[in-house]
């Protein structure tokens, strides 16, 4: 049996990018970790490193999060082990740059499965447990693109808009039950997303690119402070304000130029 008093942090997409950084920063706090992703060897290597460096307990779960039955099975396995998840980092996600009609339907739907369906299922299952305990925190990793539809990022920006608005609603819904829900909306960051999404890296994007560490720090601080959302980085905040202050045709044109599309 597992010590029920132990505070566990579950990080999805923990094998790369922001997921690795979330794991490291929570490990520095001495938190016990559940690392979830599809790539087992990367998870095991990270777990070994964190155990050695921080003397914490780390559980590795190889899960295809795009499969809802796999998400449900993960939740059940942890419950059977009496593992209580106090912090859920909904970080797993997938993006592609390119004209909508150039992508196969399967690729677009796979993005929706991971970015929307999986995140919704994880939040429903673990959020219900948190509300029953009257305690818990959920961080949703959205994107700056969640604030507007961006040419050649049609499905990704729409998926992240869902994440942001879903998070905003739950921030108010679950607050009465002692559960904090916060959305992290990063801009372009040096996480490997550019290569994975086949994204064009323009000079303007290079100027605002952030490293993962300060982005994750901003997300954790915002979650601990009970904030609704956070946009890390001065340049990213400025772009977000521009989005609020200008008509859609204008800021979409500006973003298309910035993104090189």
Automatic annotation (TrEMBL):
Give the matching PROSITE patterns. ADH_SHORT
Record-linked Pfam families: adh_short
Q: Which UniProt keywords apply?
A: Oxidoreductase
Among its keywords, does the record have Glycosyltransferase? no
Membership in a protein family: Belongs to the short-chain dehydrogenases/reductases (SDR) family.
In its UniProt entry, what is this protein called?
SDR family oxidoreductase
Organism per entry: Acinetobacter lactucae
Taxonomy of origin reads: Bacteria, Pseudomonadati, Pseudomonadota, Gammaproteobacteria, Moraxellales
């Amino acid at each position: 049996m597992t010590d029920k008093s132990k505070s566990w942090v579950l990080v999805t997409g923990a094998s790369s990018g922001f997921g690795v950084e979330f794991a490291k920063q929570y490990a520095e706090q001495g938190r016990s970790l559940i690392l979830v992703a599809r790539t087992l060897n990367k998870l095991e290597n990270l777990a070994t490193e964190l155990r050695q460096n921080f003397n914490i307990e780390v559980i590795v779960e190889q899960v295809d999060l795009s499969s809802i039955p796999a998400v449900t099975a993960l939740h059940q396995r942890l419950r059977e082990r009496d593992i209580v998840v106090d912090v859920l980092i909904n970080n797993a996600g997938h993006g592609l740059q390119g004209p909508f009609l150039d992508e196969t339907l399967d690729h677009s739907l796979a993005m929706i499965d991971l970015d929307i369906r999986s995140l919704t299922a994880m939040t429903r299952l673990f959020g219900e447990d948190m509300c029953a305990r009257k305690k818990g925190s959920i961080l949703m990793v959205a994107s700056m693109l969640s604030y507007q539809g961006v040419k050649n990022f049609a499905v990704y920006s729409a998926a992240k808009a869902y994440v942001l608005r879903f998070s905003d609603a739950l921030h108010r819904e679950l607050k009465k039950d002692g559960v904090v829900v916060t959305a992290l909306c990063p801009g372009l960051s040096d996480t490997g997303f550019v290569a994975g999404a086949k994204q064009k890296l323009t000079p303007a994007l290079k100027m605002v690119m952030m490293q993962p560490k300060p982005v994750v720090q901003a997300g954790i601080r915002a979650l601990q402070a009970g904030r609704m959302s956070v946009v890390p980085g001065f340049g990213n905040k400025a772009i977000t304000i521009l989005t609020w202050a200008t008509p859609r045709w204008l800021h979409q044109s500006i973003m298309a130029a910035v993104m090189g599309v």
